[in-house]
Amino acid sequence: MLLHHILSLSLSPLALLPFTLSAPLDSQSPLSSSTDVQPTSRVPSRYESTILGRRLLALSSTGVISSIFPSSNQSQATPWTPPPTSVSSLSISLPDYLADCDSPSVGNPTLLFLDPSTSSRNSRVLPDQDPGHPNNISLSLSWWDAYPLLTGHRPWAPADLPRLSMIGYLEEMSIREAEETGVVACYLRRHPDARLWLPGDEHAAHGGRWVRLVVREVYWMGGFGDRHWIGWFDREEWNAVREAEWGAVRLPGERD
To answer: For 31-49, how does the pLDDT look when each residue is reduced to its tens digit (9 = 90+)?
Structure first.
């Protein structure tokens, strides 16, 4: 199956030239002499990779949230079983829903945190914590699950598929703000089942809150380092990418 391994970018004001990845990502071919870098091939630049990262965010509906348990002397009084003291100050990673719903989007994903959620409880600012320095939280995305769904076969090497981790803090939105800015409608288009546990719904099983992850740093692994960019993105570049840019590129396995 022929899938795109050429990503053509026509970007303004940078006026980037079209570039070709140095190995056939779409076919996930094993490394061999046939995949040597060609004279016209090059590793994508940081900004080109940033555009791919923003596309990965825009197309993602789930990710892995990493948060840190409070220290044992900071446990919050909740109706749910508290974590064991042995995990105090340790991190935990759990999958969750997400959607890129800010308009215009600057790369800060929307989350719906239910009160019993470990990630939600760990992310709250505690009474003796400076509210100006909220807990850091990270959200990791990968293209590993999407690739086989798009192509009908498993990748030869998932390690050669893109993934990223966004690190930042949570900013709570009121229900009114989330409704008036279109966040609720956007989120439900991606997760229609979430209608059963919307914040403010008296029939919901649990209370919840709308939050956005304000992204401060992004670490990107485009794949194997000889053909992809790997490293930290520039935050201003991450925020500046527009839909016209990420809409013009394709991740491995995508069709036009």
So the answer is: 433 333 333 468 999 999 9
pTM over 0.90: no
**Which tokens in the block code for residue 37?**
């870098």
Query: What are residue 255's DSSP bridge partners?
Result: none
Structure confidence by residue, pLDDT tens digits, 172-182: 999 999 999 99
> Where does the chain have alpha helices with state H?
46-59, 118-123, 146-151, 175-180, 183-190, 235-240, 243-246
Overall average pLDDT of the 140-163 stretch: 92
192 C-beta neighbours (distance < 10 Å), count? 9
User: What is the spatial distance between Cα 155 and Cα 217, in angstroms, rounded to a whole number?
Assistant: 28
Q: Are 63 and 139 in contact (CB under 8 A)?
A: yes
- Across the chain, what does the average pLDDT equal? 81
> What is the C-alpha separation between 75 and 8, in angstroms, rounded?
51
Concatenate the DSSP letters of all residues of 168-203 into one string: EEEEEE-HHHHHHTTHHHHHHHH-GGGGGG-TT-TT
* Cβ contact 249:9 at 8 Å: yes
Which pair of tokens denotes residue 181?
């800015």
C-alpha angle 2-3-5 in degrees, rounded to nearest 5: 120
pLDDT value of position 7: 38
Domains, the chain, in order of start with CATH, read 6-26+39-70+89-123+134-246 (2.30.110.10)
